[in-house]
């Protein structure tokens, strides 16, 4: 019995010290491509590597956001460190753990620059959003747009004859009030020798809702929108670690109470001092574990169907948790049988 408890404790500690790779980036590709082109992405990981998702399909003007999202998802099947799921016009990119956490995702939609990101980005751990604008506005009626829903601010500006740096400065200054309302910092600056303007949203609250950005389609300006944590890769207490730790504490407490009750029940018997309560029944445990595991697998399938992805830690967490729950249930059943006897 001691070996079983030690093994469970070891698995729980391993799970607690492991790093969660559940972080997810979500981007909505607006329906109706304003021009022909493709969708690309660059996924950066904590270990310094990256996956470059090159758009393999050339979309004609008018292509739906759903088709563009499906293309990006299919191209990411070659990704080493991430998996992608397309739900309508939304792409959810999640780390699979091979390269560690996702630290930044760059999305380049050459068909339509209006992109939307929301609070599900990077598992609600997103800290910064960046927009890089390059080129010069060539359309007389060209307009750029930027909004941040949480503070109710939005701005539209003409882009004709303006450089990416100028457009970035004007858009950022138009929602400057969000700094005070959200406790965030919204800045703009130039890079690449003054050829590219950058808008940076720093210290965003994890529960922020939606940022929408648009450079106005095929009007001389190109843009990349990125999201990232900009944090060090630090192992943290995972959700499965917490669950397994709590289950282990409950199981150990249950064993202690069971032993105590059994000892009291045999008190006064001549051989009570040498009596050892039975703490494990292999046949009963196998049956209960099978039931617990089936319930866990059903829950895992339901989670996948609802959320569109699971992490590498989920199957491990299900198996370990099912084992601990099954042991506690089988101990309870053994106690019921003894009480009836």
The mean pLDDT is 75
Strand content: 25-35%
The string of secondary-structure elements, in order, is: HEEEHEEEEEEEHHEEEEHHH
| Total separate domains | 2
Q: What's the number of extended β-strand segments?
A: 14
**What class, by secondary structure content?**
alpha+beta
Report on the biggest sheet.
7 strands, antiparallel
Low-confidence region ranges = 1-22, 119-124, 230-237
How many whole angstroms does the radius of gyration measure?
27 Å
Oligomeric nature of the chains: single chain
Q: Span between N and C termini?
A: 23 Å
Shape: elongated
- Helix proportion: 25-40%
Major sheet: order of its strands? 4-5-1-7-13-9-10
Count of helical stretches:
7
Features:
341 residues, alpha+beta, 7-stranded antiparallel sheet, 7 helices, 26% strand, elongated, disordered N terminus
Element layout with pairings:
Elements (H helix, E strand, L loop, with lengths): L1 H16 L6 E6 L9 E7 L4 E4 L11 H11 L6 E6 L2 E6 L6 E8 L5 E4 L9 E8 L7 E6 L4 E6 L5 H11 L3 H5 L2 E7 L4 E7 L7 E5 L6 E8 L10 H27 L16 H26 L5 H28 L1
Antiparallel strand pairs: 1-5, 1-7, 2-3, 2-6, 4-5, 6-14, 7-13, 8-12, 8-14, 9-10, 9-13, 11-12
Helix pairs in contact: 1-5, 1-7, 5-7, 6-7
């Amino acid at each position: 019995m001691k070996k079983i408890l030690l093994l469970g404790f070891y698995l729980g500690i391993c799970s607690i010290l492991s790093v969660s790779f559940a972080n997810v980036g979500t981007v909505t590709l607006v329906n109706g491509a304003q021009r022909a082109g493709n969708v690309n992405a660059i996924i950066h990981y904590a270990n310094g590597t990256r996956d470059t998702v090159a758009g393999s399909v050339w979309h004609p003007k008018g292509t739906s956001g759903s088709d563009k999202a499906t293309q990006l998802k299919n191209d990411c099947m070659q990704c080493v460190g991430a998996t992608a799921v397309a739900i309508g016009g939304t792409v959810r990119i999640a780390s699979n753990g091979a390269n560690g956490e996702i630290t930044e995702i760059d999305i380049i939609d050459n068909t339509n620059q209006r992109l939307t990101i929301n609070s599900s980005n990077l598992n609600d751990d997103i800290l910064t959003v960046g927009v890089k604008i390059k080129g010069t506005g060539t359309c007389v009626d060209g307009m750029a747009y930027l909004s941040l829903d949480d503070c109710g601010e939005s701005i539209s500006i003409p882009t004709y004859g303006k450089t990416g740096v100028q457009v970035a400065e004007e858009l950022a200054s138009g929602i400057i009030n969000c700094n005070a309302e959200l406790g965030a910092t919204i800045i703009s600056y130039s890079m690449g020798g003054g050829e590219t303007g950058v808008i940076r949203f720093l210290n965003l609250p994890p529960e922020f809702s939606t940022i929408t950005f648009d450079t106005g389609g095929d009007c001389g300006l190109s843009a990349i929108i990125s999201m990232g944590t900009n944090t060090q890769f630090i192992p943290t207490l995972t959700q499965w670690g917490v669950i397994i730790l709590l289950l282990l504490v409950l199981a150990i407490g249950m064993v202690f109470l069971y032993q105590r009750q059994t000892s009291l029940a045999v008190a006064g018997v001549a051989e009570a001092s040498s009596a050892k309560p039975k703490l494990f029944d292999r046949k009963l445990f196998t049956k209960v574990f099978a039931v617990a595991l089936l319930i866990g697998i059903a829950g895992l399938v339901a989670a996948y169907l609802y959320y569109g992805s699971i992490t590498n830690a989920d199957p491990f967490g299900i198996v370990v948790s099912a084992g601990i729950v099954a042991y506690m249930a089988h101990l309870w059943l053994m106690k019921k049988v003894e009480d009836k006897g």
